[in-house]
Design a protein that fits this description.
Helix content is 55%, strand content 7%. Helix 5 packs parallel to helix 20, helix 24 runs antiparallel to helix 25 and helix 24 packs parallel to helix 26. The relative contact order is 0.14.
C-alpha cells in the first residue's frame, strides 16, 4: 500500500511540474506498478503484467479513441465552423450577443462532440467575432472554454472523463453510465453556469488584449524589432539570409529584406544580401548593437505597428497567433531543435507561455501545451498551419476547405452512434409486441449496444462514406490522451487491490461524524475540483472514484451519487489554466494571466459545487 501511495505522490509531482509529458508520466506509473507487482521484482503493488497493460484494452480507452476520430470527421465537414459563422453574424458589436452566441453554440455542441476539439475549432471563430465586433478576445475566450465544459456534461460522450468514469463505475458498482444518465443535471449546470458567465463572469475578466491594439503593441515587441542598413564592405554582403547571422552567438532573426522599395518575407533563407539592403531584425537592443559594431550595419529605426511590419502587397494576415495543442510535434521541443521554421518558412517573433511573454532567448525555451506563438509567415504557410492538427491558428483561414457535401453523412453517423446506445430497445420491443402480438419483438433489447461498439462502427462508417480518408483516422487520435488513459487506469486498480482506497475512504468517512452525507458529498466535489486544477482530469477521476465509493459505503450513502459528484467536479475544472486542456487553448490568445482563471473560476466552482451536489441529491438521492 505504501509503495502505491509513493507512486501516486511521484505521479502528482510529475503532473504538476511537467518535468515529463503527462502521457510519459502515465506510462512510467504503469511500468513501476508492473515492476513492483506480482510478475516483477516484488509484490508491493499487487498488479500483474496483464493488469498493468489492461488500460490499452480497456473499453474506456478504445471508446475515447473512437470518439476522437468521430469528432475529427465532424470537424472535416465544417459544420461547426458554419454554425460559428452564423453565430458571428448574429453577434455583431453587442457584447451580450457575442457572449450568448459563444456560449449558446459551444455548450450544446460539446454534448455530442468531444469538447476539446470543439474549442480548438471555435477559438479562431470567436477570436474573429471579437475582432470584428470591437471586443477584447479576453472577454469571450474563457467563457468559450467554460461553456464547453458545461456542455460536456450533457451526455456520456461529451468528455473523455465521462467515458472513463463510466468504465470505473461499471467496475466498482456494476453501474456504467447510459448515454443520457446525467443529462438532466447537465442541463441545470449548463443553464446556471451560462447565466453566471453572462451576468457576472465577463465583468470579472479584464481586457488583457485591448480592442484597438495590434500584435506588435500587444506583445510589446517594439524594442525587439529594428531596421538596419547593410553598409558597403559589410562581411555579410554576399551571404544568404540563413547564414548571415550566427544564431549560436546572437539571439536574432532577419524577418524581412527591403531592396529598392520591394519587401521580401519568408521564405528568404536563400536570398543573397546586398549592400544597401534594409534588414528588419528581431533582436534586443544589446544584440543589435553588437551586430552593428561587428557586421558593419547602420541602425535605421524599427516598425511600430503590424502595418509597418507587413508588406503592403501581402494580405494582412501575415502575422498570426498559433496555439500549440496537446499532441503537437512542438511540445517538448524548442524552436532550435524543432523543424518549425524550415517546415513552414515562418518566423516566431515572440510567444506566451503560462502567462509569460517571451521575446528574447526564445530558441532554447521548451515549448509546452497551450503556448501561443506570434508567427510571421507568408499566406500559404498560414494556410498550411491552419490545416495541420499540430496547431490552432487563432484566425480562420480566408478560404477554408471543408467537405460540406458530407455533412448529412456525418450527422447521420453520429445520430446512429448515439441512437443505438440511447434508445431503450427492450421497452420499444415490449411495446411493439403488445401492439402487434408478435412476442419475438421483445427480443429487440439485443439491439442495444455498448458505446464502444457503436463508436467503432461509426469510425468505419465515416471512412466508408468518405467523411474521413483512411490516413486521417490516425492523425485524428490524440495519442497522448490514449497513453495517459492506458497508463493511469492500472493505478486505480492498484489503489483498490492494495487497500489504499479503503484507508483513504475511512479517513474521509470520519468527517461523517461532523457532517451529514450531503456535506461529505460536497467535500468530495471540492477536493476533486482542487486536485483536477493541478493534474489531469482523467487522473483525478481514477484516483478519486475508488475512494469516493468506499467512503459512501462506510457512511451508508448512495455510492453512485458520489461517483457522479467526482465525475462532474473533474469535468468542470475552472480554477486553473492547466487543469483542463480547453483552458490551455484560450490561455495565450486571450492574453490571460493565471489569476484570471482564479478570479472568474473560483466563484463559478463554488456556485456549481452547491448546484451539483443539491442536484445529485434531488435526482438520485443519498
Amino acid at each position: 500500500m505504501l509503495v502505491v501511495f509513493a507512486i501516486i505522490l511521484l505521479a502528482l509531482v510529475l503532473f504538476v511540474t511537467e518535468w515529463l509529458p503527462i502521457d510519459v508520466t502515465a506510462i512510467l506509473v504503469m511500468v513501476l506498478l508492473m515492476v513492483l507487482g506480482t510478475d516483477g521484482v516484488a509484490n508491493f503493488t499487487e498488479i500483474s503484467t496483464a493488469e498493468g497493460t489492461s488500460g490499452f484494452s480497456n473499453s474506456a480507452t478504445i471508446t475515447v479513441l473512437a470518439m476522437l476520430i468521430l469528432s475529427s470527421g465532424i470537424s472535416q465537414t465544417g459544420v461547426v465552423q458554419i454554425v460559428g459563422r452564423k453565430m458571428s453574424a448574429f453577434a455583431g458589436e453587442d457584447l451580450d450577443k457575442q457572449l450568448l452566441a459563444t456560449i449558446g453554440v459551444s455548450g450544446p455542441i460539446s454534448g455530442f462532440i468531444n469538447n476539446t476539439p470543439v474549442v480548438a475549432i471555435l477559438v479562431p471563430v470567436v477570436s474573429d467575432i471579437a475582432h470584428k465586433g470591437k471586443t477584447s478576445p479576453s472577454k469571450l475566450l474563457i467563457p468559450l472554454s467554460y461553456a464547453s465544459m458545461f456542455g460536456g456534461m450533457l451526455t456520456l460522450i461529451g468528455t473523455s472523463t465521462n467515458i472513463l468514469a463510466s468504465d470505473v463505475s461499471a467496475r466498482l458498482l456494476d453501474h456504467p453510465f447510459s448515454m443520457f444518465e446525467f443529462t438532466q443535471l447537465g442541463i441545470v449546470v449548463l443553464l446556471v453556469g451560462s447565466l453566471y458567465l453572462m451576468t457576472v463572469g465577463h465583468r470579472l475578466l479584464p481586457e488583457r488584449v485591448p480592442v484597438d491594439e495590434d500584435y506588435v503593441t500587444e506583445y510589446d515587441i517594439e524594442e525587439y524589432l529594428t531596421e538596419v542598413i547593410v553598409d558597403e564592405g559589410s562581411p555579410i554582403v554576399g551571404s544568404t539570409v540563413a547564414d548571415a547571422i550566427d544564431r549560436v552567438a546572437f539571439d536574432a532573426d532577419i524577418l524581412q529584406v527591403v531592396r529598392d522599395d520591394e519587401e521580401f518575407i519568408e521564405p528568404i533563407g536563400q536570398k543573397t544580401i546586398r549592400a544597401g539592403d534594409t534588414l528588419r531584425l528581431r533582436a534586443d537592443r544589446p544584440t543589435v548593437q553588437q551586430l552593428v559594431e561587428r557586421e558593419t550595419l547602420t541602425i535605421d529605426g524599427g516598425p511600430e505597428t503590424d502595418a509597418e511590419l507587413e508588406p503592403e502587397e501581402i494580405p494582412d494576415r501575415t502575422l498570426v497567433e498559433v496555439v500549440v495543442p496537446r499532441g503537437s510535434f512542438l511540445v517538448g521541443e524548442s524552436l532550435e531543435t524543432s523543424t518549425f521554421r524550415q517546415r513552414y518558412d515562418a518566423t516566431v517573433l515572440a510567444f506566451r507561455s503560462r502567462g509569460e511573454t517571451v521575446r528574447s532567448d526564445m530558441d532554447e525555451r521548451r515549448i509546452r501545451v497551450g503556448d501561443t506563438l506570434l508567427v510571421q509567415a507568408a499566406p500559404d504557410s498560414i494556410d498550411r498551419l491552419s490545416q495541420n492538427d499540430d496547431f490552432i491558428v487563432a484566425h480562420e483561414p480566408d478560404e477554408p476547405d471543408y467537405r460540406t457535401e458530407k455533412i448529412p453523412h456525418a450527422t447521420a453517423i453520429m445520430a446512429g452512434v448515439v441512437g443505438f446506445v440511447a434508445v431503450p430497445w427492450g421497452a420499444v420491443g415490449t411495446a411493439l409486441a403488445g401492439v402487434t402480438g408478435v412476442a419475438a419483438l421483445e427480443s429487440m433489447s439485443a439491439l442495444s449496444l455498448p458505446i464502444m461498439v457503436t463508436a467503432l462502427a461509426g469510425v468505419v462508417a465515416m471512412v466508408a462514406s468518405g467523411v474521413l480518408k483512411p490516413t486521417e483516422i490516425y492523425d485524428a487520435v490524440e495519442w497522448d490522451v490514449i497513453f495517459l488513459l492506458a497508463g493511469i487506469i492500472p493505478l486505480g486498480i492498484a489503489l483498490e487491490q492494495t487497500g489504499g482506497a479503503d484507508l483513504l475512504g475511512s479517513l474521509v468517512a470520519s468527517t461523517g461524524a461532523y457532517l451529514p452525507a450531503l456535506g461529505v458529498l460536497w467535500v468530495f466535489y471540492l477536493a476533486t475540483g482542487l486536485i483536477t486544477g493541478v493534474i489531469s482530469n482523467n487522473a483525478s477521476v481514477v484516483l478519486m472514484l475508488p475512494v469516493a465509493v468506499e467512503t459512501a459505503s462506510q457512511i451508508g450513502a448512495n455510492p453512485f451519487a458520489f461517483v457522479l459528484a467526482v465525475t462532474f467536479a473533474a469535468s468542470t475544472a475552472f480554477l486553473t489554466p492547466v487543469g483542463y486542456q480547453t483552458n490551455l487553448f484560450v490561455y495565450g490568445p486571450g492574453g490571460y494571466k493565471f489569476v484570471d482563471f482564479v478570479r472568474v473560476g473560483a466563484p463559478l466552482q463554488f456556485l456549481l459545487s452547491i448546484v451539483t451536489v443539491l442536484g445529485i441529491n434531488f435526482f438520485w438521492g443519498l
